[in-house]
Inverse folding.
């Protein structure tokens, strides 16, 4: 297994370590629900160094990313982040990524850990087929990446930087901190405000001391506490955010996933635009009435939770499948996401979920289940 530069931190804070897509990562520290509530009410600290971080630079870097990403890349400003899908020829989802524009011809792309090698090879194949000039620099093992998320995080960040709290969502800045450079973006995967920080692996210890100055994470009333993969998953589910291998996949139509905002279907008509791989297939599906299934949120009756793969029914008919589910720590009810037939996707529709020995009623619920209150 790969280990991250924060491994000793996890062990010092009694992290329960697991194998996650080939990386040794903390599933939790004190408990998933406790860590979830900590993020929702104050602040949580996540190690996300397992995510891929790849720099694309050179004369054709922009054009290459235009071709493989479903969002417009040419229209991005320097310092802007943009969520995008990477599709296959059939319109299925190879991965979802965050693209960060560092210069006219330099981009940093954050990739899911399980897909890093696949996506790098895919992009390199597209580059080589077109004989485009672009350097690909996988910086995953040279850097670390942390996320600090929660409603009180910006108060903390404001003590070490006046600039970062003024960033708009999905913007980033480069901060010089003594002998190191940090990339700080106002992004996250929890539904809360916060930042994600990319920094050199060798500088993790120093950066942690500076960023978390005067914060003892072991204290019960600490402003920021460590949170693991378990809380990260329940937080993103409440926020209605898709996860590769659950709501996203090679055999899942990109038009079904509830992220239509990430599909710039006419971007080839924009200045310096480029049709993305899979665009023709998705246009054909759209023009023929749309995909057969749609991702929906579901709120379950009672206290029993569903699991990935459970059947969704309308009467005796199977109309869909659960992709993610949990007991919502914030709402106190079981929630789930799943794909259902398009005619069953209307908000308020009552369906049932086959839990094996029993079935429970569930109501189609508008996503996200939870929105952070505006401060």
């Amino acid at each position: 297994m790969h280990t991250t530069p924060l491994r000793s931190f996890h062990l010092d804070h009694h992290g329960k370590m697991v194998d996650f897509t080939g990386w040794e990562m903390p599933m939790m520290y004190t408990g998933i629900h406790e860590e979830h509530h900590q993020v929702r009410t104050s602040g949580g600290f996540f190690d996300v160094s397992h995510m891929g971080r790849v720099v694309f630079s050179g004369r054709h870097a922009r054009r290459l990313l235009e071709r493989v990403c479903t969002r417009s890349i040419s229209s991005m400003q320097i310092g802007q982040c943009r969520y995008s899908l990477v599709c296959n020829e059939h319109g299925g989802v190879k991965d979802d990524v965050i693209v960060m524009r560092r210069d006219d011809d330099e981009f940093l792309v954050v990739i899911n850990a399980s897909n890093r090698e696949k996506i790098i090879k895919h992009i390199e194949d597209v580059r080589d087929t077109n004989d485009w000039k672009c350097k690909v620099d996988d910086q995953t093992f040279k850097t670390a990446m942390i996320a600090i998320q929660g409603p009180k995080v910006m108060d903390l960040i404001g003590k070490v930087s006046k600039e970062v709290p003024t960033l708009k969502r999905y913007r980033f800045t480069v901060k010089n901190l003594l002998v190191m450079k940090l990339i700080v973006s106002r992004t996250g995967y929890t539904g809360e405000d916060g930042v994600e920080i990319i920094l050199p692996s060798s500088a993790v210890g120093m950066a942690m001391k500076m960023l978390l100055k005067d914060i003892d994470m072991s204290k019960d009333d600490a402003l920021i506490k460590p949170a693991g993969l378990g809380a990260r998953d329940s937080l993103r589910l409440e926020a209605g955010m898709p996860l590769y291998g659950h709501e996203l996949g090679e055999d899942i139509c990109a038009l079904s996933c509830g992220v239509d905002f990430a599909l710039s279907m006419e971007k080839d008509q924009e200045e310096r635009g480029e049709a993305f791989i899979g665009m023709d297939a998705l246009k054909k599906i759209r023009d023929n009435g749309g995909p057969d299934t749609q991702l929906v949120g579901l709120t379950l009756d009672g206290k029993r939770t569903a699991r990935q793969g459970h059947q969704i029914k309308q009467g005796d008919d199977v109309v869909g499948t659960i992709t993610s589910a949990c007991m919502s720590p914030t709402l106190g009810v079981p929630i789930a996401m799943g794909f259902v037939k398009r005619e069953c996707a209307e908000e308020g529709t009552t369906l049932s979920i086959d839990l094996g020995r029993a079935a429970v009623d569930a109501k189609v619920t508008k996503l996200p289940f939870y929105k952070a209150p505006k401060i």
User: Anything to note?
Assistant: The chain has eight helices and 19 strands. The chain has a mean pLDDT of 96. Residues 35 and 227 are 5 Å apart (CA to CA). The two ends are 41 Å apart (CA to CA).
